[in-house]
Amino acid sequence: MISTEVISYEDSQNAYEGFIAYNTEIKAKAPIILIAHAFGGQSKFEERKAIELAQLGYIGFAIDIYGKGKRARDSEEAQELMDSLNSDRKLLLERMKVSLECAKKIKLADIHRIGAIGFCFGGKCVLDLARSGEKLNGIVSFHGLYDTPAFNQDTKITTPVLVLHGWDDPLASPNETIALANELTSKDANWEINAYGKTGHAFTNPNAKFPDKGLMYSKSANDRAWKRMMTFFEDAFK
Question: How many domains would you assign to the chain?
Fold first, then answer.
């Protein structure tokens, strides 16, 4: 049986409200996977992903990067929330680390088996966590954003990285994707990039229906990407 809980945590300045899902029939401590949200903030989309991960035997933890109650009502507000952290990548990283420390305190979690996934802006967030030198079992970026922060330039990446990418994504061009591959190589990362043809941004989101903007759900790419994530974590958590 899958059980879910709202989980509260905080740092010295903010309160956060995340969501966890887990299988109550699993008595041993389970691997935990953080889910970093897209630019609108923690939502039902990430909660569903937490439940899907719980169905695979993991603890799914949909984290809160913006803060309790900070959820976008429209795309303009989402852009403002995202820009506040895009302009301060050190703060973004601090928020990720607060969520990571919260994950380590969840009693059901095996703290020696921790992963993270992220969607769109959340892909940038999990990449930045890996860039910081944090050692996780693995991170996965789904149609993420690849620009690098101005710090941690010389830090080796010790966390395995899987990037699942729509080749026609207008927010992450082929040149930017190649630049990410070069960055990961230069930082001695164990990395893999899977690119899906005829696929744009937000390909995992059934509500993405803006082909004129390059934002469009793709069932085929979504299914293939999720399956690759599953095998990635099966290997990572051995």
Answer: 1
- Give the chain's count of helices (H) and strands (E): 6, 10
Containing structural domain, residue 230: 2-236
Q: Could you tell me the pTM of the whole model? A: 0.98
Instruction: Give kind and range of the element (H or E) at residue 54.
Output: helix 44-55
Q: What is the DSSP string of 171-210?
A: TS-HHHHHHHHHHHHHTT--EEEEEETT--BTTT-TT-EE
**Domain CATH code at residue 119:** 3.40.50.1820
d(CA 186, CA 69): 39
Residues 6+ positions from 4 with CB-CB distance below 8 Å: 19, 20, 21, 47, 50, 51, 54
| Predicted confidence (pLDDT) per residue in 126-149, tens digit | 999 999 999 999 999 999 999 999
Round to whole Å and give the CA distance between 35 and 116: 6
